[in-house]
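Q: Structure tokens for this one, please.
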Amino acid sequence: MAVHDATPGTGPVPETAAGAADDPRRWLVLGVIAVAQFMVVLDLTVMNLALPSAQRALGFGTADRQWVVTAYALSFGSLLLFCGRLADLFGRKTTFLTGLIGFAAASAVGGAATGFPMLVTARACQGVFGALLAPSALSLLTTTFKDPRERARAFGVFGAVAAAGSGLGLLLGGALTTYLSWRWCMYVNVVFAVVAAFGAVTLVGKQQRAPGGRLDVPGVLTVSGGMFCLVYGFAHAGSHGWGSAATAAFLAAGAVLLAVFAVLQARTAHPLLPPRVVLDRNRGGAYLTVLVLGAATFGVFLFLIYYMQVMLGYRAIRSGVAMLPMVLVSGVVAVLGNTRLLPRTGPRPMVFGGMLLDAAAMAWLTRVGEHSGYWSALFGPLVVVGAGSGLIFGMVAATGTFGVGPQDAGVASASINTGQQLGGSIGTALLNTIAASAGADYTAAHAHGRPSAHVLRLAAIHGYTTVFWWCAGMFACGALGALVLRRGPLARPADGSGPQAPAPEAAAPAAG
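A: Here is the predicted structure, written as tokens:
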């Protein structure tokens, strides 16, 4: 994004919007960024449908299976802010390429895994390099497109990829597992990474580093430790319950470390996450929005897949195909929302409307039964939730990085990914617990002695519908949270070149 120094003759030389607009490669750069982002989002879900096959092939137990997912989530979630700041300090192109190469190498090792330890180690390394790659990709987009109209289209495409990636991950994971091998759910990342790396080397120009920046080591240690404890605590709650002493200890430790981190950021000269980034109403609202969206969307993907496979008997590939209407609608709406609505209305109506659409879709899904059909019970809610999520995803990417200078682009981008990852961890633990409790209560109330298969099926459906009601409530709360966002279009500089960013030395947040 464009940066205009508040004091003439001081600070870094501003980048001009005209220069960016004249660069004929910027749309090709968007393609490179989209491929990289798709790979990262894809990997959040592509292994889910491959886990049973990997478990049979490598011979590890059901209790160990969650670590194939958790290992990635722990390293990815705990290192995002640190890696976002590295992108600012060492250059986004450098960290982008490093993340791509490392992610490809870790994926190749995971695909060739001969045992559980090798697979889990590879997944953890994927998380490390994914944490380096994700904020680098979004911050590259932020600094590549300066013209407001072009930025809207670019962020619309980015939002479409983010909204569609998880659903396509289920489709691709099911197809690869069914027709090739679970190992190709890892190997496929090498293909994406090679394409993106070649494009980055040939198309992405030299990126500026944050002038005079230093790494906030205490901030890195406290926020990384805090995020690790929170993600692990929520994962532990999902498998061992909220009453576990370890769950309580890790969640409490995470909360304390993050509180210490917040205090440190207000006092250090070179904070890892400058307060001006998160204290802006629009950016702070965007981070809160993606937290709620990450938690509630989990109910759409995981429990709807459970319902289709367990109740309706769908194979993995058919489950993925069934999600396509949501994927396609979310992609189209993300682009249209960013190009047509966001410049005119600003983020508040988009978040409010998107959250209400998602809440309505979740309430609609509560009508599913033991013998419901796809077209009568699932297609409509999937289209509605796709429209709601599409409105939100593109807005979050654009608003969460709007108004920050290049020296903060990486860490602002990382804040979006951090919110989504933390929300997903909360959703995993909370909704799994709710589903299990609701199913157990139903069984206890309707079974006389040993429960029949029919009662168990009805209990499972009751667990799913209870989760859908909770997700509807989360989305409704997210709609109320939209009030945090400012009214009206995002402010632009008088010259119309792009969002106004604060001078590096400014202490107050941008008006947004």
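A few notes: The domain at 23-215+272-484 is CATH 1.20.1250.20 (Growth Hormone; Chain: A;). Confidence is low (pLDDT under 50) at residues 1-22, 493-512.
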